[in-house]
Amino acid sequence: MVFGHSDRGRSGVVDPVTLKILVAGGFGAGKTTLVGAVSEIKPLRTEELLSEAGRPVDDIGGVEGKTTTTVAMDFGRITLREDLVLYLFGTPGQDRFWFLWDELATGALGAVVLADTRRLEDCFAAVDYFERRGIAFTVAVNCFDGATRFPEESVRDALDLDPDVPVMLCDARQRESTKSVLISVVEHSMKIAAEQRQAAGG
Fold first, then answer.
1. CB 90 within 8 A of CB 32
2. What gap in Å lies between CA 4 and CA 69, rounded to an integer?
3. Is 4 exposed, middle or buried (0-12, 13-18, 19+ CB in 10 A)?
4. What does pLDDT average to over the chain?
5. Whole-angstrom distance, CA of residue 90 vs CA of residue 101
6. In this predicted model, what pLDDT tens digit does every residue of 56-105 receive, in sequence order?
7. DSSP conformational letter for 62
8. DSSP-H helix ranges across the chain
9. Is 103 in contact with 67 (CB distance < 8 Å)?
10. How many CA atoms lie within 13 A of 140 on its CB side?
């Protein structure tokens, strides 16, 4: 799925390259919203109502209005160009669902780490996960209404990111804002892949 084949046949129809992108981040960061905002198909969602049983392990501080949670994944699709299609896989945010991440990460070109400045520490685990596995990622700060806005460099410093990791502000509810984040992920991932090929060949 990651490196599909793109060709223009005799009919002039393009078979697009298909790329797999993960959308990760902490509980309540807006992953389901992001996938839904940008997907050109009705997104597949595996949300369940928050239960009393989950209250001891699901910290809703700062996101008290949240009533549902993703328990497997979100799935959506966006066509960036006629020859480039992204398949989006939103990961569950809570620790108890992290066993699913390895399956979802298989074959991924890159990832979005969605951050909420009210609970910035919640995305540390996602950053660490992708760094350890060598998966290129962009950090997208979801600008919630009423949340304090911090400069991108302040977020970079707080998360101790490498200088080449893109950091962007976004509104996960807005299609164009989210699309810009996905373009950043693709460009950053392609740049890293090209550098790795050059290093291997040189």
1. yes
2. 32
3. middle
4. 83
5. 10
6. 444 545 445 544 554 457 899 999 999 999 999 998 866 666 677 888 89
7. T
8. 31-38, 101-105, 124-133, 152-159, 175-201
9. no
10. 29
Q: State how far the alpha carbon of 77 is from the alpha carbons of 59, 85, 93, 158, 182, in Å.
A: 30, 7, 20, 32, 11
- Single-letter amino acid, residue 125: A
CA distance 196 to 202: 10
Give the Cα separation of 132 and 59 in Å (integer): 25
Q: What is the number of other CB atoms lying within 10 angstroms of the CB of residue 121?
A: 11
Cβ burial 9-33 (10 Å sphere, 16+ → b, else e)? eeeeeeebbbbbbbbbbbbbbbbbb
> 16-41, pLDDT tens digit by residue?
899 999 999 988 899 999 999 999 99
